[in-house]
Amino acid sequence: MILLFYVTPLRRQAVVKRLMTDVPFGVLLSGGLDSSLVAAVASRHLAETKVAKQWGSHLHTFCIGLKGSPDLKAAREVADYLGTYHHEFHFTVQEGIDALEEVIYHIETYDVTTIRASTPMFLMSRKIKSLGVKMVLSGEGSDEIFGGYLYFHKAPSKEEFHQETCRKIKALHLYDCLRANKSTSAWGLEARVPFLDKSFLNLAMAIDPEWKMIRRDLGRIEKWVLRNAFDDDEKPYLPKHILYRQKEQFSDGVGYSWIDGLKDHANQHVSDAMLMNASFVYPENTPTTKEAYYYRTIFEKFYPKNAARSTVPGGPSIACSTAKAVEWDAAWSKNLDPSGRAALGVHAAAYEEEAPQNVSASRNMASLDSFPPPKEPVAEATAMAVVL
């Protein structure tokens, strides 16, 4: 249990280490827990140490979304709370669709979720670079380490929970890290990811997975360990409702109509007959939806060789899960949507009974006394720290 008390200092250290730069920098701020904590730690460090700040007296934060999207509202609130100089960018569904070919060319994948999330990040990176910024901090990695995706509510045991986090971390370079790296570097922008700091990753994966699991009876939601570590009543890092905000996938948070628009566009370009014959055209990682088929045709135009297409992982997925986790619920095999919305029913069912209202009750370390002692760092997960 003592490991929990090292989460905050190591997390701070991971962010501060990545502030070493002599170029203009900022933070990608979606308003969710992960990016908000990165911004909060960076902002506090700059203020407390009186370090020479880029662009004057404020940390710069950046967010993108469709007008009225959840991320824009939450990011603005966090930026106002932290006192950052906030840049809010808007894009339309059509602008995103127009950029798809360029996005797929740069990120080199036909994975549906990665393309959905990479497109707004690609558009935002272009605007950030035009402002003269050369480096940004981003919040990738937290959901994989702490089981933050909504489908983790269905983990049948702490062993399954832990193994799924290991699988997710091992595949990060094919999904979120691929997006964060290539969507930004396409415009000469460097993205740094504090959550994947080796020391922090080793600590986080050494925490007993029982403490990471969602426990309604204890008032614990997803990523409770991380939320608890930064729940400081004396010097709050973030407002309570932001600190305990439910997970939104980036492609969902920028605006739900974004995904709907992509599906509609794909439906216009891929016929039922084309999808029916997909296994003949694409025998490897055969697309099962019109959206996936559409992305595959673009990918094949740029990368027609077998060596290229085999680098993209396949298999069923529910709300960003691995294929193995789909087995946790028989109903999931009938709704293999990689969007986070596919698992909202899981979240609703998990909280159908009212959770404890007093958030501080979930922070009571004494409630964990009956849990087994911390396990040693898992070798396969620890080794994946090299993803940095």
UniProtKB/TrEMBL annotation:
It holds the Pfam family Asn_synthase. One of its GO terms (molecular function) is asparagine synthase (glutamine-hydrolyzing) activity. SUPFAM superfamilies: Adenine nucleotide alpha hydrolases-like. The keyword Heme does not apply. It comes from Iris pallida (Sweet iris). GO terms for biological process: asparagine biosynthetic process. Residues 12-158 form the Asparagine synthetase domain. The keyword Cytoplasm does not apply. One of its GO terms (cellular component) is cytosol. Residues 357-367 have a biased composition (Polar residues). Gene3D superfamilies: HUPs. Residues 356-376 are annotated as: Disordered. InterPro entries: Asn_synthase, Asn_Synthetase, Rossmann-like_a/b/a_fold. Signal peptide: none annotated. Keywords: ATP-binding, Nucleotide-binding. This is Asparagine synthetase [glutamine-hydrolyzing] 2.
